[in-house]
Design goal:
Elements lengths: L8 H14 L3 H17 L5 H8 L10 H15 L4 H13 L2 E4 L5 E4 L6
Antiparallel strand pairs: 1-2
């Protein structure tokens, strides 16, 4: 039974482009990539748990194979581009305060009160 899933515009753009280049339908292209991913994971040269451990800071990237490093790099960039819950709360509070922060000439953090004192 067919199921629908929602993929991001960036992913779908890539799928459409590759499907057209390879003479496949969108569904065929996605299925093709899923089979490749499954084959890689079953190959014995790819350890997703090792990638997760490196992302968690438990292992060094030197422990990864070339293929694992490529996957780690993608996941690392994705992870670094999204703020964590603590950062979200910090910036929400900062926006509420109306204050801005900068570095002075000595490299020290300085706060600029957005509401002048009277």
């Amino acid at each position: 039974m067919a199921k629908s899933i929602e993929l991001g515009d960036d992913v779908m753009s890539l799928v459409h482009r590759e499907a057209e280049l390879r003479g496949r339908s969108v569904a065929e292209q996605i299925t093709h990539w899923l089979r490749i991913g499954l084959a890689i994971e079953k190959s014995g040269t790819f350890d997703d748990a090792n990638i997760a451990a490196v992302l968690a800071g438990e292992h060094e990237t030197a422990s990864l194979t070339a293929l694992e490093k490529a996957v780690w790099s993608e996941r690392f960039l994705e992870k670094m581009s999204e703020p964590g819950p603590g950062e979200e709360a910090f910036f929400a509070e900062l926006r509420k305060s109306g204050n801005t922060f900068d570095l002075d000439v000595l490299g020290e953090i300085v706060c600029t009160d957005a509401q002048p004192h009277r």
